[in-house]
Amino acid sequence: MTSTNTEGGGEGKALFAQVQFYIVQTDNLRVDNAAALAKLLEENGAQEIPRSGDERIPMEEVTHIISTTIDFPDYDAANDALKSVVKPDWVHASITKGRLANPRQYSPDPRLFFSGLIVCCADLPSGDSDAIIGGVLAMGGLYSSAVSKMVTHIVALTMDSEKCQTALAKNLKCKIVLPHWFDDCLKLGKRIEEGPYCLPDPEILRKRPEDRITEISRSDLEGASSPKPNRLPTPSKSPADNHRQITVFKNKKLLLSNDLELGSRLLETIEDLIVSGGGSVTGSVHRADIFICHYRESLDYRIASRAGKDVGNLAWLYHLITHNKWTSPMRRLLHYPVARDGLPGFNRFRISLSNYNGEARVYLENLAKAAGGEFTKTMKEDNTHLITAHMVSEKCDAAKEWNIHMVNHLWLEESYAKWQIQTVSNSRYTHFPTRTNLGEVVGQTPIDRQSVERVFFPQSSDTDPSMEGDYVQKPMAVRDQNVVSTRAPNASSPAPPKPSRSKDVPFRSSQSVGPTPKASKENRRHTDGAFRTPAPSRFGGEGKENETPSTTGSRSAKDKAVAKLHDLAPDIALFEKERKRVGGVTHGRDRKSSEEKPLDGNRKRSASKEDDTDTGADEETRVAKRAKKAKGLLPATIRLALSGYKRWVGMARKEGDEKSRLREMGILCVADFASCTHLASPRLLRTVKFICALAHAPVVLSTKFVDDCLSENKLLDPEDYLLEDTEGEKKMNFKLSDALARAQKNKGKLLRGYSIYCTEFVHGGFDTYKSIVETNGGKCLLYRARAGTGSMLRAGLDEDSDASESSQPEYVYLISGKTPEEGEAVAEIPANG
Question: Which of 458, 488, 518 is the last residue of a domain?
Fold first, then answer.
């Protein structure tokens, strides 16, 4: 079968005339199937490239690598060389269409979790249909406007639609699902089972939220649930293969580190398995292809990692021996060496699990310990996090009462993978589909190589004294003249310094850099009054869990700390109130009975005092309560945000006093620009607070309003102080009144549906643009130049004519500066990206 058309068009050319392919044989693509696929490609003009002598794929010759998985040794090299890695379906789809199909739609990359799906929408609102189509295309799937035998999923609200009836009449093997399934998959960033969403009787509509959810058992996590297994596994073999030979180490040289702490007999057994499988054991990290160690700290670890060698731990080595199949040590989190001291700042977390069972539970327990946290089997009030697969359990009920963070396992996995504590405010970590046990997607998060490289083996951090010459460790034992059995001691030379993490990790070491200075009398006098600092909360501040106060910070940092304590005060007061309540906070057992009991005189006074400090209500409610008891305290009619105000710079005490005076007038100064009703600024500014506040259309005033209110000690009319900055409007080429009118119309949704990327070195910093974009309803992502990233800057559209007629491209924006680094990053984007 030969085609006469190519992607570029042209008569007389074979379909795959410019394709030079290599087929990776896996369990799902055996030798006979690979041979048939190669024959089909060659009949249509393609050329097969054989593996080179060093068992590597010749990247300079191939154009396409055909594989059912990305789990093969040369995948990273192929990605760096911008080679197309496609599934076998790409070949058949290209022949069916008569032209080369889009490789991205047939990528085996698990991050494109809708890959392989062909979706058809039936009788959905146009907005919902467009959102689903865009999400499917962006995550590697395809869209079809008509029902055909190629369609895998039909999205519908009922079975009454014409497309659903057509699928039933033709007995098509496709699933009819509610649109909720796509919504939950996109929120989690993982593909979950469709079962609870399938029509005609979807479980999410039939069952109650409190009904029991089926437990999930995961056999694929065996061998990947602990970074340090306690025994050597038995290699698996088929019944017909009584003497199975291990071939995964063929032509490979392995280096075993001393930090594995292997006994002599176990070490000898492992070396026998390696040698009998065609591999060898070496004592030089430069000659080794694979380095096995337990910790991410030795000099050999950094040398091997920088050289791009495979670096894994003992669990990964055992996995290779057991399955006799290569897998990347970065594919599973606990197959990669661990950090001796854990993730900085994670040691203050006490973590408990709920609704995970079997290997998934063991895996998450060990992952929490590897990250440096404290794992507890039972949950108490001093726990900081509950990791749960769904919301139906007694622990979940107690966590709600005790204000303990409830997150899914993705928070733990991605904190460890990116080596940075993720904020629990991210909706991905607090999303729990109604009838899904998230244990089914445990263990799918890989190690983030760029994050690990940045922290543990940056290319410019230190100079390795062993980079010149052939650095060979002192051998432990010699097996025979042909195989040198050695292990790489960590201390053959003076212990190398640990890589500095102060610039890369949001937590510094818990060790003090010097003695804490003794507080002066003046400082003690200031803290004896209203600004007494409460005990540090385990919940952290707004949006960030990982900020540690500095003892040597500037006045600006201290001012920010005071503002943060002001924001935390309501939570602290509420917690203290709950502690005093009869029966405590345990599931609220005695709450009802205690509230119904008559109060005596002393208890009435106590209750009155607690009501006055009740911070569970909003600010206006609390102010209204106090207004009845304290004369002159008015309800807050103005929630004022300040930008560019210099009156209180370096004068924290004056700031506190004058803010209290403003509060007595009915003006509440807020740090949250999203909740402000008025914004005061000396002129038009381009600060983050000013721009973000504009999205909510506040009344913009001159800071003279604050000055005059304080000088006259009364609330003045804000309308007399509206900001007028003609020069600023002319300079910035816009009118403030028009901007506020548009903001009032947009209601904070100006950028809704937009994806905006920012380069890493953009002027002002990525966080600045992220705040502005997210305040206006958009999604802001960090763009780093790396192979494969450019092709993901826009939703991949299938080149099928049916799809192109019914869907429009999703435009994605990139913000960058003019520095050389950003120029290189932008240059990585393909012309069609």
Answer: 488
